[in-house]
User: Which sequence fits this backbone?
């Protein structure tokens, strides 16, 4: 019986050809994926830096149609909203992470872990809608505070998961050593275990921060945006992402240019946070969440 | 046969390792320490002044921590409740026919969500169609073909794609992608594939096609990073087994790697779908925002997330608002199911939780 | 009608590190040759050079003259894929394809090479499973059970059947029984003994008694060099080189 596997013909042309085409396709895929990335960054740099001037950082927007003005209020606004978000997201996220790692290894823990994942997957606009119902409707006005709440909620799952993983990575020996010394359990969790994992936890917080910094949808009906300078948390507030959105959709050329500049500043903030995370983790502190 | 010497000499038992201060001194050490005479009454007092019981602070702490855990649960419950509560009006008014009604007519207070469901499905499916082969291609390239030194660079770049905010994608979509579609891609597709009926009608640049393309770029990092994880999880022995049978590299990848990682890859794709369904800003900026159902991919469309983003703050009237919230509720439920399914599939391959903090 | 292996001046590298130093060895056809030595001596590396699996490790390379029958393994025009088809390999830890049935596992190599005739494939699968003494145990569940559902010893015999299905000239075995229990080990050893009628077998083993049981020839490796190569009986009872004697008598390794 002829067994073609036995014949000394070598690898058939068809097999060789499919091997080569597969390699080609994979390389092509890699290129096709990286090209838009580079294109976007190049555009951001060219178009964004092109219309960048100091006034952008110091002035507030001019009325539509008038040239000039800047996004100072939006930059500050983003900072304030993110500040509120962190005040909510970081404690709840770390607390939830501590719960899942140290106390929640049973059914309740599984349930909460599952809900954290669910929360992670909820579209940001739906969260915005819910916060609208909870806060904005009740207060009868938009506010930076409600925007911060919406973003803070979105930070929780990322921080909780990172915290849980980092805490689990702390060897049990460390906990037992502390407990054996007579340190109470609560102190152990905070001062020993958490401190050991602090590098990774900080990484998780910064990653969550970077993720929500660029969010627009949840702010649409909470912070709402503001063309004027305002530091009041109880009033509508401008945010970079919102400004970019509004300016981008507007019919004014000058606003288009400013949208690119705003986008450049936004992406710089985000990439800066991600880069800081990488530098911190590569310095030898405990492995980060990514 | 002569005895073989044990190469490893046992550790010297007399040598103590790093000792914490409170360790009990060994007999040897105790013998050399000067004897301290302590009166009995002082010993009694020391025993009585043990640190106060930490029971109560422990319980308080545990309770606080438990509360934070429960708060996460409460938040999800509250989100769901808000959605259900505020959409009651619309639910009562239209019932299930809401989901196949074709008319979205705020002026006459008639609301049907079919155009948005259609728009969401088509744009998401189009995004997946483009993203899945590219994501798997990139993942295979990075894990199986790429020279080692390039690997961290390329994976970093792909992850950078995930860091770009949606609104910036939208900006790029309006000013760069849409003109590209209008000037080059659209006419090309109309000429070559126009017979399918998918590429007919005027080419605005903005529309379903642009939305699908932008969404695919946004979804690629998720699918490719999960694919990369499941591919790396395939043990090296499987690859070797196929190679040793005389397989080419592609055959080894196909049979020894992809085959084993199938389930996980499907999970990654479904996770990407979940992200695509909820995507708002970039899509809103390039899809054209017209509530029409059209076969052509050049036509403008409208997704569930986009209509909420556009019309929520303008919504006059309770029914209008309620209809929009009902769409949000539908979105919430669909992404819930899709994400749960995806997690199940991915965990079954990687054997538990992965380190991904994104997606 | 078997095929022998001729090795001249084989050098193998991991990056810059020379792991095999100018190995010369002649493996006769239809015999079982054992390769022994302490951990890290290069015996696995040697065997993996014979079917060009060594170079699949990043930064690893090999050079020298290796002839399997009339094929020059490292020759200019030789395709490593083709080499691997003609030389079968069984690994230390059984690695059947978990997503495939028993039948598909054995037929995997056949399908790769374009075999389409279903009836002939059935015959070849049966023959391979009989050669590896697994047929009786699985003949009723060929398509129903997956490769991974078998016991350790059965999995390894499945892997042997899989290698045999493509009818190699040579079978390389890298410590095939080290992960198995004693009963499975003896089954595999019996199998090897019978296989030599059809194939040339090279087996890496750290167990000298195993070499004595199955191999006619034995080569002793130490630190990348082939120290001594002779009939197994002679190596194990009256080795010529002192280093071989030290290893055999257990002074190291």
Assistant:
């Amino acid at each position: 019986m002829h067994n073609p596997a036995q014949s000394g013909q070598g690898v058939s042309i068809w097999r060789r050809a499919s091997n080569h085409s597969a390699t080609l396709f994979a390389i092509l895929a890699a290129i096709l994926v990286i090209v838009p990335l580079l294109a976007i960054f190049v555009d951001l740099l060219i178009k964004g830096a092109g219309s960048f001037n100091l006034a952008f950082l110091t002035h507030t927007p001019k009325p539509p149609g008038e040239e000039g003005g800047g996004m100072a209020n939006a930059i500050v606004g983003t900072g304030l909203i993110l500040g509120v978000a962190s005040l909510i997201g970081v404690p709840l996220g770390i607390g939830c992470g501590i719960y899942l790692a140290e106390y929640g290894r049973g059914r309740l823990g599984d349930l909460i872990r599952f809900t954290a994942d669910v929360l992670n997957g909820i579209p940001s606009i739906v969260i915005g809608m819910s916060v609208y119902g909870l806060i904005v409707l009740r207060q009868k006005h938009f506010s930076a505070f409600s925007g911060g709440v919406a973003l803070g909620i979105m930070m929780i799952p990322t921080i909780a998961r990172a915290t849980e993983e980092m805490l689990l990575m702390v060897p049990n020996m460390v906990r037992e050593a502390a407990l054996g010394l007579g340190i109470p359990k609560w102190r152990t969790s905070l001062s020993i275990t958490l401190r050991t994992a602090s590098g990774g936890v900080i990484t998780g917080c910064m990653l969550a921060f970077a993720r929500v910094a660029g969010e627009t949808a949840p702010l649409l009906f909470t912070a709402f945006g503001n063309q004027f300078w305002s530091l009041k948390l109880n009033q509508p507030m401008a945010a970079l992402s919102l400004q970019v959105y509004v300016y981008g959709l507007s019919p004014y050329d000058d606003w288009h240019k400013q949208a690119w500049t705003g986008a450049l500043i936004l992406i710089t903030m985000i990439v800066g946070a991600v880069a800081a995370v990488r530098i911190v983790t590569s310095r030898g502190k405990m492995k980060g969440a990514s | 046969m002569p005895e073989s010497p044990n190469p490893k000499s046992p550790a010297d038992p007399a040598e103590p390792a790093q000792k914490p201060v409170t360790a009990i001194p060994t007999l040897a050490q105790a013998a050399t320490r000067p004897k301290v005479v302590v009166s009995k009454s002082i010993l009694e007092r020391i025993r009585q002044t043990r640190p106060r019981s930490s029971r109560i602070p422990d319980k308080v702490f545990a309770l606080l921590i438990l509360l934070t855990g429960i708060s996460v649960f409460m938040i999800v419950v509250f989100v769901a409740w808000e959605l259900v509560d505020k959409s009651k009006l619309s639910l009562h008014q239209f019932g299930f026919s809401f989901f196949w009604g074709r008319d979205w007519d705020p002026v006459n207070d008639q609301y049907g969500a079919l155009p948005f469901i259609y728009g969401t499905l088509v744009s998401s499916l189009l995004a997946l169609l483009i993203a899945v082969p590219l994501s798997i291609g990139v993942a295979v390239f990075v894990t199986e073909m790429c020279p080692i030194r390039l690997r961290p660079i390329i994976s970093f770049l792909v992850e950078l794609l995930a860091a770009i905010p949606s609104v910036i994608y939208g900006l790029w979509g309006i000013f760069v992608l849409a003109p590209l579609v209008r000037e080059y891609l659209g006419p090309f597709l109309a000429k070559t594939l126009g017979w399918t009926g998918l590429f007919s009608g005027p080419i605005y640049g903005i529309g379903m096609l642009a939305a699908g393309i932008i969404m695919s770029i946004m979804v690629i990092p998720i699918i490719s990073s999960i694919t990369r994880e499941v591919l790396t999880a395939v043990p090296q022995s499987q690859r070797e087994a196929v190679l040793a049978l005389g397989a080419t590299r592609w055959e080894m990848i196909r049979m020894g790697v992809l085959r084993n990682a199938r389930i996980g890859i499907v999970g990654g794709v479904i996770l990407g779908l979940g992200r695509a369904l909820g995507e708002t800003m970039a899509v809103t900026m390039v899809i054209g925002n017209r509530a029409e159902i059209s076969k052509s991919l050049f036509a403008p469309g409208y997704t569930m997330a986009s209509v909420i983003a556009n019309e929520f703050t303008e919504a006059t009237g309770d029914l209008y608002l309620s209809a929009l919230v009902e769409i949000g509720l539908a979105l919430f439920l669909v992404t819930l199911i899709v994400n749960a399914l995806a997690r199940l599939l991915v965990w079954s391959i990687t054997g538990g939780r992965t380190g991904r903090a994104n997606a | 009608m078997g095929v022998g292996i001729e090795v001249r001046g084989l050098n193998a590298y991991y990056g810059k590190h020379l792991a095999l130093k100018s190995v010369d060895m002649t493996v006769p056809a239809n015999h079982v040759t054992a390769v022994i030595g302490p951990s890290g001596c290069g015996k696995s590396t040697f065997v993996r050079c014979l079917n060009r699996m060594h170079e699949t490790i990043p930064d690893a390379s090999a050079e020298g003259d290796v002839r399997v029958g009339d094929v020059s393994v490292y020759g200019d025009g030789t395709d490593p894929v083709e080499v691997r088809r003609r030389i079968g390999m069984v690994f230390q830890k059984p690695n059947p394809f978990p997503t495939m049935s028993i039948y598909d596992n054995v037929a995997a190599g056949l399908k790769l090479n374009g075999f389409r005739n279903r009836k002939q494939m059935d015959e070849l699968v049966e023959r391979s499973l009989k050669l590896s003494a697994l047929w009786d145990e699985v003949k009723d569940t060929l398509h129903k059970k997956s490769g991974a559902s078998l016991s350790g010893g059965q999995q390894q015999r499945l892997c042997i059947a899989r290698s045999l299905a493509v009818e190699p000239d040579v079978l390389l075995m890298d410590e095939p029984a080290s992960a198995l229990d004693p009963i499975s080990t003896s089954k595999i050893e019996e199998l090897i003994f019978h296989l030599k009628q059809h194939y040339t077998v090279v087996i890496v083993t750290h167990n000298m008694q195993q070499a004595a049981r199955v191999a006619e020839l034995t080569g002793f490796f130490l630190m990348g060099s082939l120290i001594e190569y002779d009939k197994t009986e002679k190596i194990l009872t009256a080795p010529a080189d002192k280093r071989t004697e030290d290893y055999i008598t257990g002074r190291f390794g």
